[in-house]
Design brief:
heterodimer, A: 277 residues, mainly alpha, B: 108 residues, four-stranded mixed β-sheet
Chain lengths: 277, 108
């Protein structure tokens, strides 16, 4: 039971933290509940499919199917997160420039809602398929009674959801004028961490071999499989033994998204107008 | 049309074929035990690890120090590319059965 509890809890917090951030980011946007629910449902369906076809997936692309799949969905999530950040930054400018365009902007906003529901789906898909495989394994091997397994899984799910809810409540407690800045930063870190994780899969498949040396080892201080380590891993991409390439991709993604968001933000535009005047 | 498809297949396999490697470490999983539990590999050379799962349940081969994480379906086989390593001992385990299923790669 404890095994089921721990593994479900572990995977749920990783997906749950991302769902919590998406919910906080989209607070007050019409139709966001439907989009997040659609993302969850698509992710769960995808997770089950990935679990059922795990063998076929592993054999695809000369044995690198799993890596290509994982790297692909992570890259998709990175692009969606970056796009959301950049679009939100310029959206603010549009609204400030012309109040009449707000109606159009809200309609337009459903487009980044779709991007965020894809991010939710990807998070649930990745973490969920492991849970399905693991739980199915327990049932198949008869290692634990079905009820015990179910109970462990339920407690894991509930505590993971609770932690994610705390994250969400913590975020929405931030005053509205700061919330945008905080969630923009969070999404930038989230995306950079996913980009670095994407590199790990490409290294594992043998496509990326440069800069493979470990840069630091903090596994004795803060192992990334401990609870705080996992939360930091999900939110900021913390890894206790990163390779040089992971670090390089992490920093590049961070800088690129940060700069692109800054360039699109209204503060810059108004400063330009001031200097022109 | 047919030639186009064939060349597309060639292109795909050229893009996605893992580089051929001289060294390979072979592991099997049976009754939730790795065999051998203490494989050896040469230091400072890239190599591959192949894991064959003979159990009826899925496993996830994982090692933090080797930086790999890959699901092995029941009866399935996986291959992973490992970077050139310093001499030392590298712990690995089945993430789905962490308490019973582990081993150590000896690099020298």
């Amino acid at each position: 039971m404890l095994g089921a509890l721990i593994i479900v809890f572990r995977e749920v917090i990783e997906a749950g933290l991302i769902v919590g951030i998406v919910l906080a980011v989209t607070r007050g946007v019409p139709g966001r509940g439907l989009h997040v629910a659609a993302g969850l449902a698509a992710g769960l369906l995808g997770a089950t499919l990935v679990a059922v076809f795990a063998g076929e997936l592993a054999d695809a692309f000369a044995g690198a199917g799993q890596e290509i799949f994982n790297a692909g969905v992570l890259a998709l999530a990175v692009v969606m997160l970056a796009w959301h950040n950049i679009w939100m930054a310029s959206h603010g400018r549009e609204m400030a420039a012309n109040l009449k365009s707000v109606g159009a902007a809200v309609a337009e906003g459903s487009r980044t809602l779709t991007a965020l529901s894809i991010v939710v789906a990807v998070a649930v898909l990745r973490e969920g398929s492991e849970v399905v495989l693991f739980l199915y394994g327990i049932v198949a091997s008869g290692a634990a009674g079905f009820h015990e397994l179910l109970l462990g899984g339920m407690i894991g799910l509930a505590s993971g959801a609770l932690l994610s809810a705390l994250m969400f409540l913590g975020l929405v407690a931030i005053p509205a004028r700061h919330l945008f800045r905080v969630t923009t930063a969070l999404i930038t870190f989230l995306a950079a961490g996913m980009a670095a994780q994407c590199v790990v899969f490409l290294q594992q498949a043998g496509y990326v071999t440069a800069l493979s040396r470990t840069v630091w080892d903090t596994s004795s201080v803060l192992p990334d499989d401990s609870l705080p380590g996992r939360v930091l891993h999900t939110l900021f991409g913390y890894v206790d033994q990163p390779s040089g390439m992971q670090l390089a991709v992490y920093l590049s993604a961070l800088i690129v998204i940060f700069v692109a968001t800054k360039l699109a933000s209204p503060q810059r535009a108004s400063r330009k107008q001031v200097s022109m005047a | 049309m047919k030639t186009a498809r064939i060349s597309a297949v060639f292109l795909t396999s050229a893009l996605f074929a893992a580089p051929a490697m001289a060294q390979q470490v072979q592991l099997t999983l049976k009754d939730h035990k790795f065999s051998p539990a203490q494989p050896h590999a040469p230091a400072n050379h890239a190599f591959t690890i192949v894991v064959k799962n003979l159990d009826a349940t899925a496993a996830e081969f994982e090692s933090k120090t080797l930086r790999v994480e890959k699901v092995v379906a029941p009866g399935g086989e996986i291959t992973m590319q490992i970077r050139p390593l310093n001499a030392g001992r590298y712990h690995f385990f089945d993430d789905f059965h962490q308490d019973t299923t582990e081993g150590e790669l000896v690099v020298e």
